[in-house]
Design a protein that fits this description.
There is one protein chain. With 396 residues, this protein is α/β, with parallel strands linked by helices. Helix content is 43%, strand content 18%.
């Protein structure tokens, strides 16, 4: 009799597991797999998928439910195509939440036209425009990347402390570039720095010699390029080097990429960059965890992508096991203190803790904490380029 009961229990468990795997939670990933950040996007997406896989393989997510990540291409800069891709994710793929979109302009377009009207929560690990803070989002748009209002201040402080008092600035002519340029200009001027030239550039142009000549004529010590590593930003750096008009560069986050090292090598030695990140022990452990799973590049926003996915998995679970929390409210609840701290690689611990009726504070790989507007409060790394990569020299 006991054996029969055990077999019945096993059969019931197997049937439940099969049902769970046949009814996965579907989460969209909307990143620029083509376009100006295409060299970064695979690592960013893989980091998010790693967190979703960790949650599913724990066997604790919603009683053994699987999670199905579904990729789509935002292009980073083509808003109509990004909106169309997001609409397909919502209507055809029936996603329950979205990680992305990535670049600020398409993130705003997708949130406004697709996710918010459909009541779907989205978490962008990469969109940084200050304008997104005031998005009328009904509590549905979050980001694990800090705003460029903060990066502008960090860039200004880094330059002044490195003895750089005059700078020429070129920025990609979109929400990201303009927002970062404005934030930097305010902060740099407040610290006594001078911007001797401030010039937008359009991605995809065949020739940037006129723009570079104008920037060089300013007499600035360095050129700050607030652009994209796989598009106009890289082309401007190449033009400047070919013409021999700038020897020093400053790169915000969109330019801090392996593709820049591969393209220019020792020519970038000494270049200063900033990107979100921290140097705490959890971040170091996370970097090793990525390597262990075959994600071994240096793309920015990998930690933020992992954390965005982890938070969604934990929030979806919390919403179901606690009952009554809307997903946006649940995200705030699992991300912020108080609660048992959960780090990278501890998603299973977080799911178990929630199932036990206890509160968690997901710290993750990027020390994530949400503001009332759904922004991350985050820190920034100052990096310096060498011949074969870039290394962190300070955290702000």
């Amino acid at each position: 009799m006991l054996r029969t009961s055990m077999l019945a229990a096993l059969c019931t468990c197997a049937a439940t597991s099969l049902a769970a795997s046949e009814n996965p939670v579907r989460i969209g990933l909307l990143f620029g797999f083509t376009g100006p950040i295409e060299s970064m996007s695979p690592e960013i997406a893989a980091s998010a998928e790693l967190a979703l896989e960790e949650a599913a393989l724990s066997g604790l997510f919603l009683g053994g439910r699987d999670i199905l990540p579904i990729r789509a291409d935002s292009t980073c800069i083509d808003a109509p195509r990004a909106v169309a891709a997001a609409e397909r994710l919502v209507t055809a793929e029936r996603i329950e939440a979205l990680i992305g979109a990535d670049c600020s302009g398409v993130a705003s377009a997708v949130a406004t036209a697709v996710t918010i009207p459909n009541g779907i929560v989205s978490v962008s690990p990469t969109a940084t425009s200050p304008g997104l803070t005031t998005l009328d989002d009904n509590g549905l748009f979050f980001r694990t990347a800090p705003s460029d209002a903060r990066q502008g201040e960090v860039l200004a402080e880094v330059l002044i402390r490195n003895g750089i008092n005059t700078v020429a600035v070129t920025y990609t002519a979109n929400d990201y570039g303009k927002g970062l340029s404005n934030a930097f200009a305010r902060a740099f001027s407040a610290r006594g720095g001078q911007i001797l030239a401030d010039l937008p550039h359009v991605d995809g142009a065949g020739d940037y010699s006129a723009e570079v000549a104008t920037l060089a004529a300013s007499g600035a010590e360095v050129l700050l390029v607030a652009g994209y590593a796989d598009q106009g930003g890289q082309a401007i750096v190449r033009t400047a080097l070919d013409l021999g008009v700038f020897e020093r560069f400053v790169f915000p986050d969109g330019m801090v990429a392996n593709s820049m090292v591969a393209a220019f090598g020792s020519a970038l030695k000494g270049t200063i960059g900033t990107l979100p990140g921290t140097d705490n022990p959890q971040a170091t452990a996370f970097d090793q965890m990525l390597v262990d799973h075959g994600i071994d590049g240096q793309a920015p926003y990998r930690a933020e992508a992992y954390d965005a996915a982890a938070l969604l998995a934990l929030a979806i679970h919390a919403k179901e096991v606690t009952g009554g929390h809307e997903l946006g409210e649940a995200l705030n609840w699992v991300a912020n203190a108080p609660g048992i701290e959960i780090g990278p690689g501890e998603i299973g611990k977080g799911l178990r803790t929630l199932s036990e009726g206890l509160e968690i504070n997901y710290v993750g790989a990027s020390d994530v904490e949400f503001t009332a507007e759904g922004d991350a409060t985050g820190t920034y790394r100052e990096v310096v380029f060498s011949e074969d990569g870039f290394e962190t020299v300070a955290v702000w």
